[in-house]
Design goal:
Blueprint (H helix, E strand, L loop, with lengths): L5 H20 L4 E3 L13 E11 L22 E13 L6 H15 L2 E2 L1 H11 L21 E5 L4 H9 L9 E12 L24 E7 L10 E7 L5 E6 L2 E3 L3 E2 L3 E5 L11 E13 L4 E7 L3 E5 L3 E9 L2 E12 L5 E6 L6 E6 L7 E8 L5 E9 L2 E2 L3 E2 L5 E3 L1 E4 L1
Parallel strand pairs: 1-2
Antiparallel strand pairs: 2-3, 3-6, 4-5, 5-6, 7-8, 8-12, 9-10, 9-13, 11-12, 13-14, 13-15, 16-17, 17-20, 18-19, 18-21, 21-22, 21-25, 23-24
Helix pairs in contact: 1-2
């Protein structure tokens, strides 16, 4: 950063830069740093550099925050980021077009050399310490120590804006002029900082970006996925330093972890966590960093989905004369907003006999009662559908459906 001498150093740097060029292009021309009203009546050729405005830098005005701790100790030196606006006016014989020649020389020079280099600031310090000195008060400037170089750019001012600017100088006639902005100038307060906590140990961890990818999710026993199934997750880059699987918002530790396959026991989830229907799954990697190794957040896969099929664990019917109720109990939670349907199937052919919509619910349930009408007497196989996912039917060793069943009178 730079001290309070940064502002006059920028002015001196512009003067020094232009002096080396305009005197060659227009013999006898000089560069001044006076107020425009201090050059009335001057007919000698030259350029006047006048700082007319100072504004906070818009990009960095909020960067200087929390410079002190809660107990008043200095954590970082207060720094002001500024933009300096300069008015460059041109003097000389109008009939010899000296002001216009000086304007062309100035614009060309500032466009070709738009920065105040560190070498330029060093040259100002050397001149301040020379004999005789030039700007001796700039001997201790340190503008060259700020992180960014100060850049010069044209400041577009329309004729009305220039006229308003010149009107503030009492009875000073307008001179051919242009405006330039010097940005950004960082002015820092020279305070002693509170010593930082010493570094006791150094550590560097380089971790490749290896985001896991899920390609397929299926049941380990090749049947439909139910609440007690162990699922097989297939994909790429599935194994990390620490690997877990987030199922329905809850992390589960897989029982098998390889780069291409994970086994996840759904039965390890707490009761009431898993719902029937569509379920979201995501692979979570954590990176071990430090001594001793400590888990840190790593990569996550995109969200994948699989279907959990409900299983009817109990079915009771109270139906006489074709009307009544059938109460079903399932092994997984059914949400209040999920769509329910009960299908009564023919035990011999498994053809649909009746379909009934589920009742409205105010919360999550595992038991629900369906009102039925027009059901003939006899035995029926019951299938429950949750968001379109059909329940798993019970079968014997030969594959014949054995339940769940209800009998109506």
């Amino acid at each position: 950063m730079s001290n309070f001498l940064a502002i006059p150093t920028v002015t001196a740097a512009i003067q020094r830069l232009l002096s080396s060029r305009v005197s060659v292009d227009v013999p006898g021309a000089e560069v001044w740093t006076d107020s425009p009203d201090g050059r009335q009546g001057v007919t000698d050729p030259g350029v006047n550099v006048f700082l007319f405005s100072l504004v906070p830098n818009a990009a960095m005005r909020n960067a200087d925050v929390a410079t002190r701790s809660s107990d008043g100790r200095v954590r970082q030196r207060p720094t002001t980021a500024l933009d300096l606006d300069y008015l460059l006016s041109f003097h000389g014989a109008e009939d010899d077009l000296q002001p216009q020649r000086l304007l062309g020389s100035t614009v060309r020079t500032l466009h070709a050399t738009p920065t105040i280099t560190r070498e330029a600031v060093e040259a100002i310090r050397l001149s301040a310490g020379a004999s005789p000195p030039t700007h001796h008060y700039l001997l201790h400037t340190n503008l060259d120590e700020q992180m960014d170089l100060v850049r010069l750019s044209p400041l577009p001012l329309h004729v009305d804006e220039l006229s308003k600017l010149w009107s503030v100088f009492f009875q000073v006639p307008y001179r051919l002029s242009v405006a330039y902005r010097a940005s950004v100038v960082l002015v820092e307060e020279d305070l002693d900082l509170e010593p930082a906590t010493p570094v006791l140990a150094r550590g560097l961890a380089v971790v490749p970006m290896r985001r896991p990818t899920v390609e397929r999710i299926e049941s380990l026993d090749a049947g439909p996925v139910v609440a007690t199934s162990t699922i097989r997750v297939l994909g790429h880059r599935l194994r990390g330093d620490e690997t877990s699987v987030e199922v329905a918002g809850t992390e589960v530790a897989p029982t098998l972890v390889t780069p291409r396959e994970l086994h996840v026991p759904l039965g390890a989830l707490a009761a009431g966590t898993l719902r029937a229907g569509g379920v979201a799954l995501q692979i979570v990697h954590r990176v071990l960093v430090g001594v001793p190794p400590t888990p840190h957040a790593g990569e996550r896969s995109s969200v994948a989905a699989f279907t959990v099929h409900p299983r009817v664990v109990d079915a009771e019917a109270d139906v006489t004369g074709g009307s009544g109720t059938i109460e079903l109990t399932v092994d997984s939670v059914v949400g209040a907003s999920q769509r329910l349907a009960m299908v009564l199937l023919d035990p011999a052919t498994l053809q649909r006999r009746h379909v009934f919509a589920g009742p409205e619910r105010t919360g999550d349930v595992t038991e629900t009662t369906f009102a039925v009408t027009g059901v003939g007497a006899g035995e029926h196989v019951v299938e429950l559908q949750v968001d379109g996912a059909p329940s798993v039917l019970d079968t014997d060793d030969d594959g014949n459906v054995t339940g769940p069943k209800v009998t109506t009178a």
